[in-house]
Structures are given as structure tokens and as C-alpha cells.
Write a structure and sequence with these properties.
heterotetramer, A alpha/beta, B alpha/beta, C mainly alpha, D mainly alpha, B: alpha/beta, Rossmann fold, 11 helices
Chain lengths: 333, 327, 298, 315
């Protein structure tokens, strides 16, 4: 299905200037997103998944010392080089973003209706009354009961689940082509999370939009995503369809990650698998393969940095010994 | 499974109402915990799960008497903790410890890690003062930290290491019963498995009994022997872990288990998605508090509060419809 | 009592320890403004300590022949209407300002700390102490100080007392808000769970973590105290003349503003140098010690 | 909402009680016999006895407090011996100049400080930010009375634009009134403005770090729309608080400025009363200013409800 990708990221590098010099949070990330597809961006905290998503829309604030390199192609334009006012026409209109903590992501002093109508007025040039009417339909679309009255509510009057629905309504108000969701359900309870995930899947089919879902919960990935990118210390270490990820993970870090999570499938009697050591800080990133110091199969070759190699049609891995298995290690059921 | 030892901790009809506001005229209360009864045998890990606001953390703190309950009894080794006076209370306090969720705010940033652990020994005068430092080294080693960590400050540790220090501080006084209040929720996946394995090792080595409070069901399933499911201050269902996951009887438990994202894409199964939000504990629904969201609610559910009764060996449920629907 | 003593000692070593460690001191030194603040303040402190050596003439000696002389080689800052050397009086005046400032900082910090901590820890005390604090803060500093001076009579000690009374509530309020944040931390609940006694919780766990906002506040209070002392003396209700204080030199300068501008200008410059130095250090300390304040360079 | 107002007023009563007690206690701290101090050493015993009787000084302290408080509640602040008039009328006569001085100074301060603080925060880290904040730092480091003296030296003595001192009431024409008030108001407003500017910058910077600002940016809003529409309204709550709290600094500054510029306001009244040991006037004036401060802060608390729906809709 070699159709035109919705978004293509080529060799994205994001660096922050801190007191002790330049820190590379995202180190050469490449991937494509196709419309109608949900791609999971998975990794532990500090691996750069959120920074990658923020780099797409250049949401680093006016005075932060961040430097972006590489290319992000969207509708034949490179988002990293287009002038600021042009990217502002894309933000919330063609690409929109929702965030993790519903409690603090809505402005407490404006009603929910105003905040949704704001982007409609901005991007679709409707007047305030028409925009509010459209906001009501959006609230209905995301499943909020009695939307006509909810329009006039303030964020502090709504529960966490409701606020996340408002965030989604705000994001989809202008029918964007791509939705970036940064850990949308992490702060929610498991039953509310199920509702929100189901809602996102329903809306994706209706609007045929691409979704980048950033999460650290592999269960959520299995439920919702079609393809998965596993990130470690600023680099993509494995990319594959979601079934392949759980059937035949190749990168040692991905295997370790999957087997160290207690889940319905793991046996309660056994000890959980543990990835040795700790995630190193961004100030002293190991040379060569970033995972080498913690990898049980590391050898001399891992001293020089591996490339993201394509194993088969849709499976890429950044490792000199992909699929390495210690003898007797069984694969996940 | 733990042998039939006498229950170490017994909780009878525990109730806790919090006043909504400080002034006296406002009598509205938040019904945080409503007549919870449970018992934990020695060496057992009792998992307490439920969504946020269901009162599981409050229950944990009530058992340790960190907050005074409105009514009910907590018996530790047969003695009612709520009636104990200072000296006896101090002894019981030494046997019951707590481990908290957020490793970043569980340690005083201005005090060295070693002296924080030694401080617990100072408070309970464990052993002669001069060899408390040696004991601290021993405890540090038990939780997987080195000697030279003694003089470091908390900001020099990662989340996982800090949680080990918090554990060391709780174990420094040789407790029998430890309440773990969401000990791994704030940790990353890789450090999470390290701490869970450590908790299980310490339980075996030091014969500890855990009350493990968490909202992540997969973690609770892995570590607990028995699990209690709470909703809006009520204990809905209680059973051995395997029975609960094999045959959940209460509709809320079924919805809760079906909502857990299963890390295997081929594992598609019927999803019970609850509608609406958790009602506010300020004015909970009458009768069974779950009836407003329960797919099988009937008239009786609205009128009378279901009592937690035994439906199968070691399997209690608080639901009117259970007996004729599931068995 | 020895436990509390070594707890305080411990707190001291913790505190000195953090100063000694280089990253903290290095970061403070990298802040150019803070360093200039320190420079200004050391000049004033040296002036206060070595006043007799630095002054060219005894401050109170009147030379009627040299009345109202403009600044010259002999009289660097000129002379006032009684022929007294303004430069020497300004130098000696620094003693008053520094001593008043320091004592006000010490008194208001210690009492404010105790009031703030105990009102944050004991809820029932909180209402009582906070109402008294609100009541005291309702009085403008200068007015309250004047009233106390009028009652107690014009002595430097009374100036210190009246300015301290004005700033105890401010410190109490700062410490209370910091202590309330610390009190909600889990490590406080942990110590309570261990059955730690209140004094241990307050002095070993809450107080050390309230030091940063207190130190920053104390620096600003030192600056305000210098201004208020000068205002009081200027109004004639502060340090009694003929003892030289920047305030009463300024007050002499006011009446002779047309003939002798220098009497009014130089003590003013001394006040600004001191207060500016203290404010610079206060800002530097705030950026250093309060983690969540956002620095200029994000 | 009404409950919020009622609650704020209930907080007020104990504070006013403390104000009254502190005000009463200060005056009665005088060591020795207040009557002798007031009448001076050459007064005869008979005069002393009559004065003590008149002021009721020989009654137990709480009875004196009770009678004084009762009088205050009826607007009778006592009798001033030196001015031979009721204290309340003395205060009333001196109220005009202080009110117009403080209002003009506060207006100047806010008009300068808010834009300065917002511009500094919006251009955080640039030279503009450093420039404005150095100015604000100077502003809080220079005492207002010294600025006043320099203004007199420069504008009155050297340039002669403005009168060196004195006061013309509003009734004598606005231009004339302002001519006398410009220098004192600006010198008083500078320190006040500097305090407010620093607070505006830090509270705006804190708001700009909130998540909902990043959401607004992700919606594609322009930078200045985010600053003025989303950020400033949230930052206004702490700014209002500072304006309320620094009102005490303003009144304090007014006292000194009035002495510098010879403006017959409350400040001047208190200073002369202090030098003459006229306790009744000191007591009355200070009570009046403190009460004004408390009422102003009540008004500011009520303003919160306009800005913050969480306060307005609190049950």
C-alpha cells in the first residue's frame, strides 16, 4: 500500500541548551505516518517520545534554547523551516495535539465552549455564534451528555474523563488530518481509559485521520495501535506492526520491556524479568549502541552505533544481533 | 498459598467520614470508607484495588491508625489498635509500617539517606545507639544499595533507588506488617519490575505481611495472594487472585478486568465498557453505590445495600444479583 | 534538650555543607548581579566596621568657620550648617543602618520562623496566629514604627524593636506558606507514621526545608529595614540627633536644599548603595535557592 | 458566591479587632505617666490630675479600652488637646490631600508597572527583560523621600518647573492641584510601581509554564493572543493580591513624602502629633489608615470572584 505518507520525519534531531551545555533529547528519528493509521510511540520516560511529538509542531515556547535539525514533511512543506505564522495555521487545524493531564490542560478561567470555539473561529473564520454551535456538535461527537448546557461549564466543574473528552473535541474541532495524543489516558482510571480509547478509535474511522499515540503502556499499544515505534534514549530502536511486536520482538530492549511487565499472560509464580542497570541520563549517553551497557548480548561490535536496518517489509531494528535469544528463553505466549 | 495461620490483621466494619469543610455548621460529609471488613493472614499479600477515590488509601491509613476512624475496629495480633494507649501503641506502631507512592516526596531532601534510615531506629531505640549505623548498612544491603550510599542526599538517587531507601526506612524497625500504598505506580516499567521482585524477596526473607494498594490490576495480580475490589468506599468483591481473575462475579469487577488493556493484540474479547463517571462521594447513590452504572441493576439494587457474603470458598461478593446469575 | 541542640547543629552542618559544595557557590558566583550586590554590601560593611579609621574628622566636631563648605579635598562630601564633615557623618551613619538592619533581620527571622512553623503545623493555632499577623500587617510600617517610637521614646533600641514588630508578620507569613507546602510532603506523613514527636517533625524535618524562602525574605527585610530606619530618622522619630544616621543627615539636608545640595545627596547615595546591594543578593539567592522560580534564561 | 462574600467579611472582624487592640496597646506602652509626658515637666499636679481624670487614665486598662472602643464604634475618636478639636474632624480635614496623593501615585504605579512587567515576561531572557528588571530593581532600592528631595533639587530649585513644596486642593482647579501633586505622586509611585512590576513579571512567568498555555499554543494561537487572552487573566489574581498588600507600603511612603513636600495630609498630621506627643491623634489616624487597608484588601478579595470562576462558583 505504497500511497503518499501523511507525515514524514527525516533524521529529526532536537537539542536543548542547558547550564552544562547542549543535550540531545532526540537523536536522528525517522518514520512515516499514513492517514487512517494509529502509530504507537512507546518508551520509558526520558526516551524522547514527547519531545519528538512537540518537535513536529515546534511547541517549545518562544525563548527556549531548543535547536531542531532534519526535515518534517507535511503536505509537501518542511514544518521545521516554514515561517512561524504558517505553522500556526497548521496547528490545531491540520495537525492537532492533546496532552496527558486533563486537570491542567484547560484554561480554568474560560468556559469549555469558548475554548473549543476559539480554534474554530481562528481556523474556519466562523463568527462566535456559529463556532459555539459547532462546539456543541463536537461535544456530542465525543459523547458528553447534554452538551448544550455543558458548553457554559468551567473546566473545574468537570471530571477528569469529561475534560479529556473536551480536549479531544477541541483537537478535532477543525477535522485535522493528524492527531498527536501525548499519553492521553495515563492520568485516567482504567474504566475511563477504556472509554477514551474506544472513542479515539471510533473517531479515527469516521474522520480517516492519522493518530500518533505516545504512551509507556504496552497494553494500550496492543489495544489501539496498528504500528509501533519503540524508542530508547532519543533513538528509534524498533519499528514493526503491533502483532509482530508481541510475536517476534527483535531488539533486546523491546524483549526486556515486554517480559518485565506483569500482565494477564505472565505466570504469577515466576519472578519478573528485569532489564539490568538504569536508563542513563542524557548528559552521558553511551557511545555506539545506546543500549549496549544494559544489553546481555552486547559484544565488541556493539561499540559502534548500529543503523536502523530493515529486516522484512515492515520490520526495522537498530541492533547488530537482532532476535538474539539466550538459550532456553521462551517467547511470550 | 499461605497456610491457615491466625489472621494477623482483622478489620471489622471500618467507617471513615471526612467533613467537607472546616466550619461547624456545614455537616456534609464525604463517605470515604463504608463498613469495610477484611482479614489478612500472616505471610500473605492482600491486594486492595479500585479506581481513584474509592477509599483504598484511606483504608490503609486507618489500619495503621494514621487517621482516626469514625467507627469500626482494627485488630492487630488480636489487640484492638484503636484502644491502645501510648506505650502499647508505640510497640504496635513499630510492627506496622507504610511505604508511599511518590519516591520523590517520601524522603526529606535535606537529610542524608543513611541518617534518615537511622532516625527510625532512634525513634524506636532499636539496639544500642552506636551500632545502629552498622544495622543501617545491613538494611541498605538488604534492599540492594551499597554502603557508600549512606552519606548521599536523596536528589542523587533515581526513582527506583529512592523507593529502595523508603523500603529500607520502613524495614529498619523490623516490622511484621507493611502497607504498600501504590509503591510502584510512579516508577518506570524497568524499575517497577525490580521493586516488585525486591518486595517479594523481602517478604520471603523477613516473613512480612503486605497490604498492597494499587490501581494497576496487572501489578496487583502478580504480587497478591488475595484481592479485594473497592468502589466508592465499599468492598465489592474479595477472593483469591486466581479465582477472581478466572471467574469475577461482581459486575464492577467484570468491567474492571475487561477494561485492562491486554498486551497481546490477538487477545480480542468482549469488552464491558461502563457508561458515565464515578458519582461524587459527597452524595453517593442509594442502595448499592454501583447501581447507577451497573448493566444488570434492578429495583432491589436501588433500595437496599448489598452485604458482602460468601458465595464460594474464600470468595465474597456484595451484590444482590450474584446468587441466581453466576453460580 | 541535647537532641534538639544537635538537631540544630546538624541543621547548621547540613546548611554549611551545601554552601561549601562548589556547584551551589559556583552557580551563585556566575550570577553577575548577585556578585555586584556582594561587592556593594562588603564596601558598606567595611565602612561600618572601620568607621573611625575611614572618617577624616570626628563626626560630631563642629567647626563654625567652615560652615556649608562645598565638597573639596579637605571635606570630601562638604560640611553642614554646624561645620561638621558630612563624609565622616555618613561613614559613622553606616553603623546605625547596618546594626539596625542586622538586628531587625535576626529578631524578625527567629520570631517569624517560630510563629510560621507552629501556625503551619497546629491547625487550631493557625487561625489565631494568622489573624494577629493580618492585623499587624494592616499597619503601614512607617506609621506603626512612629507610634511605637512615640510611646517608647527616641532610642536606637526602640527603632530596632519597632521595625522588627513590623516585619515579624511578614516573615511568619512566608515561613507559614513554605511550611504548609512541606507539611503536605509524604516524608512528613512518614515520620508521623513512625510516631515521631512534633518537635522532631517541626525542627528536624519542616524547618530545614523552609530555610530557602526565609533566607531570601531576610535579605529583602534587611533592605526594607535600612529604608525605614532612614525614614524614621528623617521624620525626626528615629535615631536621636546628634548621633549621625543617614536619615537625620538627610533631614538636615532638606532645609538647606537650596544652599547646600551636598548634605542631602551623599547620604542618599549611601542608602541606595546598601539597599541595592541587598536587593541584588536577594534576587541572586532566590534564583539559587527556590527551585521553581523561572530563571531569566529558561 | 454570596457565601464567599460572607466568609470574607467574617475573616475581617477578628482582623479589625486585632487592629483595634494593637492600636490601643501601642499608645499605652509609654513608660511612666502619659499625662506628665503630654503636658511637659512644668505642669502643676492639679493640671495633671485634671488631665488624667479627663482621659480616664486612672481607670483599669480594659475599662479604658472598652470606653475607647465604644467611642470609636460611634465615630468618636477622642479629643485632641493640642489642636483643641475632636480627632475625627482633624482627620477629616487632613484626609483630602492624602487620598488624592495616594490615588494618583497608585494610578501612576499601576499604569507603568503592569505593561513593564508584561513586556518583561513576554520577552523573557532578552535584553528588554534585563533592562526592565534592572529598572525595577533600582525602583525598589531608592527610598521615595530621597527621590522626592532630588526632584525638588532638580525641577524646583534648578529648573523651576514645579513648586518646591505646598499643596493646592482640587477646588483650586485641576491643573493647579496637579502642579503641586506631580512630583510627590511620581516619587511615591516609583517604588510602588517597581514592586508591582516585579510581581507581575514573576506571576506571568509562572502562568506561562502552565499546561493550558501549551494547549493554547497547540491550537495555533498567536504569541501575543496567548499572552493577553490566556496568560494575563490567570496572572491577574496574584498581581491583585500584591497591589492589596503593598497598599500599606504606599501609605507609609505617603507619610514621608508629605513631610518632604509639606503636604498637609494624614502623614503630616501624625508626624506633628508624634513630636507633640498628641496620643489621641496618633491613635485615631493609625486606626483609620489600618482600617482603610483592611477594607481595600476586602474589595480586592471580592474582585477575585470577577476574574476567577472557581471562586465565583464555589458552593
Amino acid at each position: 500500500m505504497k500511497k503518499q505518507p501523511l507525515l514524514e520525519v527525516r533524521d529529526l534531531k532536537t537539542r536543548f541548551s542547558t547550564e552544562t551545555g547542549l543535550v540531545t533529547a532526540v537523536d536522528g528519528v525517522c518514520f512515516q505516518i499514513y492517514s487512517g493509521e494509529t502509530v504507537g510511540l512507546v518508551g520509558e520516560s526520558g526516551c524522547g517520545k514527547s519531545v519528538t511529538s512537540l518537535s513536529i509542531l515546534r511547541l517549545f515556547g518562544k525563548h527556549s534554547g531548543t535547536r531542531l535539525e532534519g526535515k518534517i514533511l507535511f503536505e509537501e512543506r518542511d514544518l521545521l523551516t516554514v515561517p512561524l505564522d504558517e505553522i500556526q495555521t497548521i496547528r490545531g487545524n491540520k495537525i492537532s495535539m492533546i496532552f496527558q493531564d486533563p486537570m491542567t490542560s484547560l484554561n480554568p478561567v474560560y468556559t469549555v465552549g469558548d475554548q473549543i470555539a476559539e480554534s474554530i473561529v481562528l481556523h474556519q473564520k466562523l463568527d462566535r455564534k456559529q463556532a459555539l454551535a459547532k462546539a456543541v456538535t463536537m461535544l456530542e461527537l465525543v459523547g458528553i451528555p447534554s452538551p448544550e448546557s455543558r458548553i457554559h461549564d468551567y473546566p473545574h466543574q468537570l471530571s477528569g474523563g469529561m475534560r479529556q473528552r473536551v480536549m479531544i473535541a477541541m483537537g478535532l474541532a477543525c477535522q485535522p488530518k493528524l492527531l498527536i495524543a501525548d499519553e492521553p489516558t495515563t492520568a485516567l482510571d482504567v474504566t475511563i481509559q477504556a472509554q477514551i480509547l474506544e472513542l479515539m478509535q471510533k473517531l479515527q474511522c469516521e474522520l480517516n485521520m492519522g493518530i500518533i499515540l505516545i504512551t509507556h503502556d504496552l497494553g494500550v499499544v496492543a489495544e489501539v495501535c496498528d504500528r509501533v515505534l519503540v524508542m530508547y534514549l532519543g533513538q528509534i530502536v524498533e519499528e514493526c506492526p503491533v502483532e509482530v511486536l508481541f510475536d517476534n520482538p527483535l531488539h533486546p530492549y523491546t524483549c526486556g520491556l515486554i517480559r518485565s511487565i506483569p500482565s494477564m499472560a505472565t505466570n504469577r509464580r515466576e519472578e519478573l524479568h528485569v532489564i539490568a542497570g538504569m536508563v542513563p541520563s542524557l548528559y552521558h549517553v553511551p557511545a555506539g549502541c545506546h543500549f549496549a551497557p544494559r544489553c546481555p548480548y552486547a559484544d565488541a561490535q556493539c561499540g559502534n552505533p548500529p543503523e536502523l536496518v530493515t529486516i522484512d517489509a515492515e520490520h526495522k531494528v537498530r541492533c547488530w544481533h537482532p532476535g538474539a535469544r539466550a538459550s532456553g528463553e521462551r517467547r511470550l505466549a | 498459598m499461605a497456610t491457615q495461620a491466625a489472621p494477623l490483621v482483622e478489620v471489622e466494619q471500618l467507617v471513615k467520614y471526612f467533613p467537607v469543610s472546616k466550619n461547624y455548621f456545614d455537616l456534609r460529609v464525604v463517605k470515604a470508607v463504608n463498613r469495610i471488613s477484611l482479614s489478612i493472614r500472616e505471610g500473605e499479600t492482600y491486594g486492595l484495588v479500585g479506581e481513584s477515590g474509592c477509599g483504598k488509601s484511606t483504608t490503609g491509613r486507618l489500619i495503621l491508625r494514621l487517621i482516626e476512624p469514625t467507627a469500626g475496629e482494627v485488630r492487630f495480633q488480636g489487640k484492638n489498635v484503636l484502644k491502645l494507649a501510648n506505650e502499647e501503641l508505640r510497640k504496635v506502631r513499630q510492627d506496622m509500617q507504610i511505604v508511599f507512592q511518590d519516591p520523590f516526596s517520601a524522603l526529606n531532601p535535606r537529610i542524608r539517606v543513611g541518617s534518615a534510615i537511622k532516625e527510625t531506629m532512634d525513634i524506636f531505640e532499636i539496639g544500642p545507639p552506636n551500632d545502629r549505623k552498622a544495622r543501617t548498612y545491613d538494611i541498605l544491603d538488604k534492599v540492594g544499595l551499597q554502603k557508600d550510599h549512606y552519606d548521599r542526599y536523596p536528589h542523587e538517587f533515581s526513582g527506583g533507588q529512592r523507593q529502595r531507601v523508603v523500603l529500607a526506612r520502613a524495614l529498619a524497625v523490623g516490622p511484621k506488617f507493611v502497607v504498600c500504598d501504590e509503591p510502584v505506580s510512579a516508577l518506570d516499567v524497568s524499575t517497577q519490575s525490580q521493586i516488585i521482585n525486591l518486595l517479594e524477596k523481602l517478604q520471603r526473607d523477613l516473613k512480612l505481611t503486605y497490604l498492597f494498594i494499587a490501581h494497576n490490576l496487572s501489578v496487583v495480580r502478580h504480587i497478591s495472594d488475595r484481592i479485594g475490589v473497592m468502589y466508592l468506599g465499599h468492598l465489592m468483591e474479595e477472593a483469591a487472585t486466581d479465582n477472581l481473575f478466572a471467574r469475577p462475579l461482581h459486575p464492577y469487577t467484570q468491567a474492571l478486568l475487561s477494561a485492562i488493556p491486554h498486551p497481546n493484540p490477538r487477545h480480542k474479547r468482549k469488552r464491558v465498557v461502563l457508561s458515565g463517571d464515578v458519582p461524587s462521594p459527597l452524595n453517593p447513590p442509594t442502595g448499592c453505590v454501583f447501581h447507577t452504572r451497573c448493566p444488570i441493576a434492578v429495583g432491589a439494587c436501588r433500595d437496599t445495600v448489598p452485604v458482602l457474603h460468601q458465595v464460594a470458598p474464600g470468595h465474597n461478593v456484595a451484590c444482590h444479583k450474584v446468587h441466581e446469575w453466576n453460580i | 534538650m541535647d537532641i534538639a541542640a544537635n538537631a540544630i547543629l546538624k541543621k547548621k552542618t547540613n546548611f554549611l555543607e551545601s554552601i561549601r559544595r562548589n556547584i551551589v557557590v559556583r552557580r551563585f558566583m556566575s550570577n553577575r548581579l548577585a556578585v555586584t550586590g556582594c561587592a556593594l554590601l562588603t564596601i558598606i560593611f567595611l565602612m561600618a566596621i572601620f568607621a573611625p579609621l575611614l572618617a577624616t574628622q570626628p563626626p560630631l566636631e563642629m567647626k563654625v568657620t567652615d560652615r556649608l563648605k562645598a565638597p573639596s579635598a579637605a571635606y570630601w562630601f562638604g560640611t553642614d550648617e554646624f561645620g561638621r564633615d558630612v563624609y565622616s557623618r555618613v561613614v559613622h551613619g553606616s553603623r546605625i543602618s547596618i546594626s539596625v538592619g542586622l538586628s531587625v533581620v535576626v529578631i524578625s527571622s527567629v520570631l517569624g520562623l517560630v510563629l510560621g512553623l507552629y501556625s503551619a503545623y497546629y491547625r487550631h493555632l493557625d487561625n489565631l496566629i494568622m489573624r494577629v499577623v493580618d492585623g499587624l500587617m494592616a499597619f503601614p510600617a512607617v506609621l506603626l514604627a512612629i507610634a511605637i517610637m512615640a510611646a517608647l521614646g527616641p532610642k536606637v533600641e526602640n527603632v530596632i524593636i519597632s521595625i522588627s514588630v513590623v516585619y515579624i508578620p511578614t516573615v511568619a507569613r512566608t515561613v507559614r506558606s513554605a511550611a504548609l507546602v512541606v507539611r503536605e510532603q509524604t516524608y512528613i506523613e512518614a515520620i508521623q507514621a513512625l510516631g515521631g514527636k512534633p518537635w522532631r517533625i517541626i525542627w528536624r524535618h519542616i524547618a530545614p526545608n523552609c530555610m530557602s524562602p526565609l533566607i531570601v525574605q531576610a535579605t529583602f527585610i534587611f533592605a526594607y529595614a535600612v529604608i525605614i530606619e532612614a525614614s524614621l530618622s528623617f521624620l525626626g522619630a528615629g535615631t536621636p540627633p546628634p548621633q549621625p544616621s543617614w536619615g537625620n543627615i538627610l533631614s538636615d539636608g532638606r532645609t538647606l536644599i537650596r544652599q547646600a545640595w551636598w548634605i542631602m545627596v551623599f547620604p542618599g547615595i549611601a542608602i541606595v548603595m546598601t539597599v541595592l546591594g541587598l536587593n541584588l543578593i536577594g534576587d541572586g539567592l532566590r534564583d539559587l535557592l527556590d527551585p521553581h522560580t523561572n530563571k531569566a534564561k529558561s | 458566591m454570596v457565601k464567599y462574600i460572607f466568609k470574607r467579611i467574617c475573616y475581617l472582624l477578628p482582623v479589625l479587632a486585632v487592629v483595634a487592640i494593637v492600636d490601643f496597646v501601642i499608645i499605652h506602652l509609654t513608660p511612666g505617666d502619659p499625662a506628665a509626658v503630654m503636658l511637659g515637666s512644668d505642669a502643676t499636679d492639679a493640671d495633671l490630675a485634671k488631665l488624667r481624670e479627663q482621659l480616664g487614665l486612672n481607670l483599669p486598662i480594659y475599662v479604658q479600652f472598652g470606653r475607647w472602643l465604644w467611642g470609636v464604634l460611634h465615630g468618636n475618636l477622642g479629643w485632641s488637646i493640642f489642636m483643641d478639636m475632636p480627632v475625627s474632624t482633624a482627620i477629616w480635614q487632613h484626609l483630602g490631600p492624602t487620598v488624592s496623593l495616594t490615588i494618583l501615585a497608585e494610578v501612576i504605579a499601576i499604569a507603568v508597572a503592569i505593561p513593564l512587567g508584561v513586556a518583561a515576561a513576554a520577552n523573557r531572557g532578552t535584553w528588554l527583560d534585563q533592562l526592565f528588571m534592572t529598572l525595577a530593581l533600582l525602583g525598589i532600592s531608592i527610598p521615595s523621600f530621597w527621590i522626592g528631595l532630588n526632584f525638588i533639587l532638580l525641577f524646583a530649585v534648578k529648573l523651576g518647573w514645579f513648586p518646591a513644596a505646598g499643596y493646592q486642593p482640587l477646588s483650586s482647579g485641576l491643573v493647579n492641584h496637579l502642579k503641586y501633586l506631580i512630583m510627590p505622586a511620581v516619587s511615591l509611585g516609583i517604588m510602588q510601581g517597581a514592586l508591582i512590576a516585579r510581581m507581575t513579571r514573576s506571576s506571568l512567568l509562572e502562568v506561562l509554564n502552565e499546561n493550558y498555555i501549551r494547549t493554547a499554543e497547540a491550537k495555533g494561537l498567536k504569541y501575543w493572543v496567548i499572552i493577553f487572552k490566556h496568560a494575563l487573566r490567570n496572572a491577574f489574581i496574584p498581581i491583585l493580591t500584591v497591589i492589596g498588600l503593598t497598599f500599606a507600603v504606599l501609605i507609609g511612603g505617603a507619610v514621608v513624602t508629605e513631610t518632604v513636600f509639606n503636604i498637609p495630609g494624614i502623614g503630616k498630621l501624625v508626624v506633628t502629633a508624634v513630636l507633640r506627643r498628641d496620643y489621641a491623634v496618633i491613635q485615631g489616624a493609625i486606626l483609620m489608615t489600618a482600617t482603610a487597608y483592611v477594607l481595600i484588601n476586602l474589595v480586592i478579595d471580592l474582585l477575585y470572584a470577577l476574574i476567577d470562576p472557581r471562586v465565583r462558583l464555589s458552593k
